[in-house]
Amino acid sequence: MPKTCNRSTAGWFGNKVAQLRSDYFKASNYWHPRFWPMWITLGLLRLVSLFPYPVQLSLGRLLGRLLQSLSKPRQRIVDINLALCFPDKSRQQRDKIKNACFANIGVSLLEMSMCWWWPEAKLRSLVEIRGKEHIDAVLESGRGVILVTGHFVSLEIGGRLLALFMPIQVMYRTQKNRLFDSYLYTRRSSYYVNTISRKNTRLMIKGIKKLVPTWYAPDQNFPGERNVFAPFLGVQTATITASSRLAQSSGAAMLPFYPERKKDGSGYILWIDPPLADFPSGDDVKDATAVNASIEKSVLLQPDQYVWIHQRFKTRPQGEPPIYP
Measuring CA to CA, which residue among 212, 56, 195, 41 is closest to residue 126? Predict the structure, then answer.
């Protein structure tokens, strides 16, 4: 059997972290009228969780199209990103990716209901995992595992499904709505070993050294952190160097991971690739290029399942004009 954290260790580790959260969800803290819209949203999600999976897919696509029609600024961001990354595609081809992307984002919002309220047996019926042997081999060698991924539309449910196969810890970013942030954190903590603020690297490294596979998504624009410029889909992209430092500090291997929502509507595939070679190399640009290339590989396979609505290329090399209006 591969070395990994056992359930008692995982539970102790998660409970210790939960004690650090003063805003762990308590409904009585959120009765103020300003939280009522979010309560209604959570109620609708709970209702959606009762529907069969094909119905949820259809409703999600409709929601995505509605959000697209109401989000002209986001559409412009997607248009810019796709034009930069796929200059050889026609406008019609890029529009097809954009429309499918918004539809998939709508589905991803409803997938939260599955993450939170579906029983494990029902979730297992929808997922297959390919490449788990790469994780097992690394853990057997005594090294920790960092699962480097990107912001794909199945990001939320991908992590939930992976947790069916192994204890994992994940990074999170605080949400603006306090009710949603507290509820999301609490639900995630019910199926992850640990849910860690992306700023708390010390705690994350502690989990990695305990051989808890760690979900990690560095593919956003973080202007306040140390960045280098490395290619991503042909665009020089500000990329955080934290990936190299995290691997160096923890001694972990970096394994590409990405979830795929099957196009036939039958469920999901969780893909895990072998560890990145010579990582960290000691060269921040080389490492950032390797991380970007691992994410790029899956984006090229399923471009409509990447979240293009972020201003990924906002930070530019010195002297270059802004990309987004």
Answer: 56
Burial class for 299, CB neighbours closer than 10 Å (0-12, 13-18, 19+): buried
Does residue 228 form part of some domain?
A: yes
Quick check: is 299 in a domain? yes
> What's the DSSP call for residue 30?
G
Alpha-carbon distance 256 to 43, whole Å? 35
Contact 270, 256 (CB under 8 A): no
Contact status, residue 193 vs residue 10, Cβ threshold 8 Å: yes
Which residue's structure tokens are 């990145």?
276
Mapped onto helix, strand or coil, the DSSP state of residue 270 is strand
Neighbours of 312 (CB within 10 A): 27
Whether pTM exceeds 0.70: yes
Interaxial angle between packed helices 91-117 and 155-162, expressed in degrees from 0 to 180 and rounded to the nearest 10: 40
Q: Among residues 92, 25, 98, which one has the least CA distance to residue 308?
A: 98
Domain with 137 in it: 7-32+126-305
Average pLDDT of 32-38?
95
Closest by CA to 160, choosing from 152, 170, 150, is 170
Number of structural domains, the chain? 1
User: For residue 101, is it within any domain?
Assistant: no
H or E, element range at 136: helix 132-140
List the single range of 121-130, 174-183, 267-276 with lowest mean pLDDT: 174-183
Q: pLDDT at residue 20 above 90? A: no
Q: How far is CA 78 from CA 67, 204, 324, in A?
A: 13, 32, 10
pLDDT number for residue 5: 54
Q: Enter the tokens of residue 239.
A: 């990329």
- Euclidean distance between CA atoms 149 and 154, whole angstroms: 11
Residue 81, both tokens: 């990103």
pLDDT at 174: 87
